[in-house]
């Protein structure tokens, strides 16, 4: 290698040292190692800017409660391209599972199918950051590498300026990053990997927060769970909770196990496997959500998608043919009928093989399946016609059996009315006990196979979204409008043990389910929050009203750049250095999307008027307008254009920046 003089060094600023920033550095290390010692390149200086511990960042900080679990098992996540097809691994690359096996003491002797504490994953991220940066710093290609524990509040991108004194051509001026203390950093390339950022409250949330301040109540808006002071919640307090997703289960764990309670094995079957023994210091939780029930538990599996699942209809060649005929695709018209057929076929195939007696025995069951597959193979039907004809076929073999409606499963209590809160409590418990039995059965459960098929379809749809193969209107109306919510509720839930814990705490009288479509209000006369469901009645023909002095929003701050209160994100938008990606609604009117407007991979930031910031690259959550599911980690060993897209994005940015440095 022929090093350049210090004045020729190319400076890379990495804004955000969490998982996405660490992935970028690992990919940069791979590029540097691939270039080898003979490459005549200038020295590179790297400055990493993040107020949090590098590697874990804020969300995965190593000092947080170990009651907060990841939502994926040990075998799933990686921050580095170890075994990723098509990507050269760096010398430091390890998946979490590889790190777990090499470090059983630091990984708490986790099994590959266990769901790790976030703090443990944070230890992996911290070690990966150290290993990667140590290797970069030792490379002859890197002049300096430093982490500054600071926030970036402003970015002025590089401009091309004409040199003075008759010099020829144009010279690049470096980008200027202003830090929280007022100092500045000049950089030739900037990687924005800022991750989760704070956001302002919505109008509804602001109304409730204002009422809380006026009435002396306690309101907690959307938050990262490790940021909350859980000890502030008094023993015995009635806490109204909006949201029954993953943040709700964090609250449940912290306010039960975190209060000294314990779960005891009962020896009974799924759904009643645990008994909760209170400490006496717990509050009473009143959880509510639009669906009226928590996210469903994940099936007990040793794979991210059930081994039995193989999509038959939503396959790349069919999608390619549809796109060749129609151009950008409409999800509801072109993709959902294929997904629906895949889900139906997978469910009844599993039913025939695992529970043939329901269909009259092995012979009739096989006959039914052959007829069903013949029906599904006939192209040209939408979901309603397919469902109607399949229902008629099913009734010929099992007259009393309802046909699988995967969309109704996501809202199991829709259209039902309950005379009392106690009746609804029993209904939810019975539903979750049944679902727990299905989850415990794993691939032997037709329902879990159907949900796994829906999940597999989601993974392909995510790739199609990232490749811009759907119309903007359909993405907004269908994918964001209902499909994303459907799959999240059915396939992105907690491990089964969390739902077992919820049921045990409910049986102990410390959880009271509210009902679907809840209405939260402040009651000024009683200085309380109230919540009720229009489907759950109470005494004297009124609604069952839950009251409490505390209210919590069990959800993360929204990932929408226009709602962000981050100084950096706000200033980028205010200056026109960045703009939100704009989508069209059904009438063709522009609507701002969730994330920044960016180019295709490598994702360079675009500003006002479509101006491309050539040296500014975006990774992670702020790509939400052009990708779906930007918060999830890369899946170990998977395609960097699909299930490990975050690694593919990081690799593309690293290679583009290296080309700038060496060009």
TrEMBL record:
InterPro entries noted in UniProt: FAD/NAD-bd_sf, HpyO/CreE_NAD-binding, L-asp_N-monooxygenase_NS-form
Ranges where the FAD-dependent urate hydroxylase HpyO/Asp monooxygenase CreE-like FAD/NAD(P)-binding domain occurs: 13-196
Annotated Pfam families: NAD_binding_9
Protein name, as recorded: FAD-NAD(P)-binding protein
Source organism of the structure: Citricoccus muralis
């Amino acid at each position: 290698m022929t090093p350049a003089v210090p004045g020729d060094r190319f400076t890379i600023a990495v804004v955000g040292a969490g998982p996405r920033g660490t992935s970028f550095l690992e990919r940069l290390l791979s590029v540097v190692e691939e270039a080898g010692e003979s490459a005549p390149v200038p020295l590179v200086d790297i400055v990493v800017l993040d107020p949090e511990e590098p590697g874990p960042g804020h969300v995965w900080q190593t000092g947080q409660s170990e009651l907060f679990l990841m939502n994926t098992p040990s075998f799933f996540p990686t921050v580095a391209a170890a075994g990723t097809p098509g990507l050269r691994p760096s010398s430091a690359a390890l998946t979490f599972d590889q790190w777990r096996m090499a470090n059983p003491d630091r990984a708490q002797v986790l099994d590959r199918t266990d769901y790790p504490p976030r703090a443990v994953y944070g230890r992996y991220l911290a070690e990966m950051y150290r290993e990667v940066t140590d290797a970069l710093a030792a490379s002859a290609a890197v002049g300096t590498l430093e982490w500054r524990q600071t926030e970036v509040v402003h970015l002025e991108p590089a401009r091309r300026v004409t040199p003075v004194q008759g010099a020829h051509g144009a010279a690049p001026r470096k980008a200027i990053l202003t830090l929280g203390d007022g100092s500045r950093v000049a950089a030739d390339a900037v990687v924005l990997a800022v991750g989760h950022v704070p956001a302002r409250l919505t109008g509804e949330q602001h109304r409730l927060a204002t009422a809380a301040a006026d009435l002396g109540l306690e309101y907690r808006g959307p938050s990262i769970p490790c940021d909350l002071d859980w000890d502030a919640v008094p023993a015995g307090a009635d806490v109204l909770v909006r949201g029954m997703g993953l943040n709700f289960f964090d609250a449940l764990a912290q306010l039960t196990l975190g209060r000294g309670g314990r779960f005891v094995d009962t020896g009974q079957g799924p759904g009643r496997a645990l008994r909760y023994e209170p400490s006496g210091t717990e509050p009473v939780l009143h959880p509510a959500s639009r669906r009226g029930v928590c996210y469903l538990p994940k099936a007990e599996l040793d794979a991210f998608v059930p081994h039995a699942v193989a999509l038959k209809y939503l396959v790349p060649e069919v999608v390619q043919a549809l796109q060749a005929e129609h151009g950008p695709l409409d999800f509801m018209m072109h993709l959902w009928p294929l997904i629906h057929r895949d889900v139906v076929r997978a469910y009844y195939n599993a039913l025939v093989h695992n529970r043939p007696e329901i269909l009259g025995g092995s012979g009739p069951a096989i006959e039914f399946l052959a007829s069903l597959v013949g029906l599904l193979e006939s192209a040209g039907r939408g979901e309603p016609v397919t469902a109607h004809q399949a229902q008629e076929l099913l009734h010929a073999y099992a007259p009393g059996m309802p046909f699988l409606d995967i969309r109704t499963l996501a809202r199991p209590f829709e259209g039902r009315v309950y005379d009392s809160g106690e009746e609804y409590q029993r209904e939810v418990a019975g539903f979750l006990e049944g679902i727990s039995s299905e989850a415990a059965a794993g691939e032997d459960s037709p329902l879990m196979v159907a949900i796994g098929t829906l999940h597999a379809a989601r993974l392909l749809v995510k790739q199609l979204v990232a490749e811009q193969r759907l119309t903007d209107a359909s993405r907004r109306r269908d994918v964001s409008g209902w499909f994303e919510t459907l799959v999240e509720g059915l396939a992105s839930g907690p491990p089964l043990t969390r739902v077992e814990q919820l049921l045990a705490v409910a049986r102990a009288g410390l959880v009271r389910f509210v009902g679907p479509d809840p209405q939260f209000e402040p009651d000024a006369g009683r200085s309380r929050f109230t919540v009720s469901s229009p489907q759950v009645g109470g005494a004297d023909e009124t609604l069952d009203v839950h009251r409490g002095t505390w209210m919590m929003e069990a959800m993360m701050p929204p990932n929408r750049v226009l709602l962000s209160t981050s100084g950096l994100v706000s200033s980028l938008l205010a200056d026109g250095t960045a703009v939100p990606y704009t989508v069209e609604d059904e009438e063709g009117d522009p609507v701002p999307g969730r994330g920044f407007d960016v180019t295709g991979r490598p994702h360079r930031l675009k500003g006002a008027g479509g101006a491309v910031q050539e040296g500014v690259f975006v990774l992670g959550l702020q790509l939400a307008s052009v990708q779906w599911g930007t918060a999830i980690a890369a899946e170990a060993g998977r395609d960097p254009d699909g299930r490990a897209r975050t690694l593919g994005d990081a690799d593309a940015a690293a290679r583009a920046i290296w080309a700038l440095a060496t060009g």
